[in-house]
Amino acid sequence: MPEKIPSDSVGLVKPELHHFDEPLTLRSGKVLPAFDLMVETYGKLNQAKSNAILICHALSGDHHAAGYHSMDDKKPGWWDECIGPGKPIDTDLFYVVSLNNLGGCGGSTGPLSVNPDTGKYYGPDFPIVTVRDWVNSQARLSDRLGIEKWAAVIGGSLGGMQTLRWAISYPQRLGHAIAIAAAPKLSAQNIAFNEVARQSITSDPNFHEGRYRDYDTSPGKGLALARMVGHITYLSENALRNKFGKDSAQPGSGNSNFGRDLRTGDLSFGFNIDFEVESYLHYQGERFSENFDANTYLLMTKALDYFDPSVDYEGDLSKAFVNSACKFFLMSFSTDWRFPPARSKELVENLLRAGRRVNYIEIEADQGHDAFLLPVPRYIEAFSIYLQRVHEELPHET
Amino acid sequence: MKSCRMRPDLEIIQHWIKPGSKVLDLGCGDGNLLQYLKQTREVSDIGLEIDAANINQCLAKGVNVLEQDIDNGLSNFQSNSFDTVLLTQTLQALSNPDLLIDEMLRVGKNCIVTFPNFGNWKSRLYLLRRGRMPVSRFMPYQWYDTPNIHFCTVKDFDTLCAEKNIRILTRTVVDNDHQGSWLIKTWPNLLGEIAIYHITRDHELSE
Known about the structure:
heterodimer; A: alpha/beta; Rossmann fold; Rna Polymerase Sigma Factor, Chain: A; 8-stranded mixed sheet; 11 helices; globular; B: alpha/beta; 7-stranded mixed sheet; 9 helices
C-alpha cells in the first residue's frame, strides 16, 4: 500500500471500458461480432492530438501499466518504472494509452466474457487471437480516441512484437516503433517452453477441457507450474544467483556454488522445500494463479508462437517492413536468454535491408529478460533521451 | 544549428558528400558530423558506435545510431547499400584495418578514410631523438594504454591501396590547422599530420 503516492507516479487511475460494435475478423478467419477493451490513460492529449503513445503489454500484462487503483494497492502498475512524470515515458509530455488485449482477463473481451452466440462464457471457445488481431483492435481504439497517428507505439517482449506489427499493418499511423527485448519470431526453444506451460495447464485434473468454471474450480496447480517455468526463463542465471542464499564461504575459494549457501535451513532428506529458489518459485506461481485466467494464459502463449511477420513475404522478414514509415528504436539486454540480443540484431539487419531508419542499443544488465521492467540506469537514460527527442520533433499546436 | 568548430578532416570531407545521399559513419562518436550532413546535405544517416555516452548524444540529436563494434565487421549491411562510408580518425584503433576497408568498399560505393599520419616529421624526430613512442597533444597515450594499435603513414596507406587495387579518388594531407600548403603537397608523408583519402573500388567512378 502506498502511504503516500510518490511524486513521480501518475497517481490514482481509473480504467475505462470501451465497447466496439463492428465485427472484427481474426487472422484465423473467425469473427468476433463485438468486443470490449479495458483501457487506462495517463497524461493529457494535446490539441494537435500528436502526443499520444500506445503501450502494448506482454504475456501476463494488462491495461494497468502505471499508478494505483486505490490507496490499498500493494504495487503500482506493471510498467510504473517507465511511465510517469519525469520518467522515460513522461506523462508531463505525452498522453499515454494502455489497454488489455483481446483474450485477456483484465476486463477486455476474452475467455471470461459471455459469448453472444451461446449466452454462456467463452472459456476454451474463445478464438485464438494473434498479434495482428490485437493490433487491428488497437487501431479501432485509436479511431475511437481520435488519434490519427501515434507519436510512438511502445512495448517489451510480446509487446514489442505488437509495435513491429503496427509498423507493418499501419505504416502511416505511428511516428516511432519502440521494441524492447523483442524478437522477429520465436525460437524452437521458446516454443518448447510455451508448450511445457500449456501442458502443465491442460493436464491439471481441474482443467476440465477449459470449462473449469462450470465445475467451480480452476487449474491452479497447472497454471502455477506454467508460471514457474516461464519465470525461470525471464531471469538470468546471475539474477537467480544474486537473489538467493547467503554467503557461506570466502568468495573465490572455489566451493559452495560461488560461495553461496542456497539452503533454507537443514536439509529435509525428503521431497520438501530445501532451497530458497524453490519456495520463491512456489510463491510466484501460486500468487500468479490466483489472479490470472488459465485459458488466457493458453491464448497468450499461442499468440507468441504464431508471431512471424515474414510468413506473408516468403520468409523474407525485410519485405514486411518495406512500407513502414516510422523510425525504429530497439533495445536488448545482455543476459536475456529468452529473446537475446542476437534476436534484436536480426531485426535490425532486416530493417536495414528494408531501408528503414533504425536505432539499436544493447544494454549490459544482470536481470535477464525481466530487465525491461526494471530501473536499469543505462536503459532508463537512453529511453528518456530518445523519447525527449520524439517530443521535440512533434508537430505542436500553435 | 550549433556553430561548433569542426575537426579539420571533417571540414574537408563534407564537400565530398553528395546531397541526399546515404551515408554510413563508422565510429560516429557524438553524431556531430552526421547531424551536420543531415542539416546541410539532407543525407540519410546511420552511425555505428560502441560508447554509451556517445550513443546517447546521437539519440538526443536524432541521428540514427546502432550499437555495433566495427571490429566485428559489417556483415549486417548489404553490398552497395550506401553512397558513402566514413571512417574518420578510427583506422588506427582497429584490430584488422585492412579487412574493414574491404568491408567498407563492399558496403559503400565510395569511402572516406582519415587518419593521423605517423610518418609526420614530428613523430620521426620524437622517435629518433628520444627513442620512445611519440606522445603528443593529438596522440596523448602511452604505448601500453593506447587504443591506437595500428598506426600507419601516408606511404603505408598508399601501398595498401595499390596492393588491394583500390582507386584513390582524392588524397589530401593537411596539418592540424587543416592548412594544405604547397610544402605539404610536395612532402605529404613528412609534413602532413592528418591524411584524408577518398577511395572506391568502382573504377568507373574515377574515370
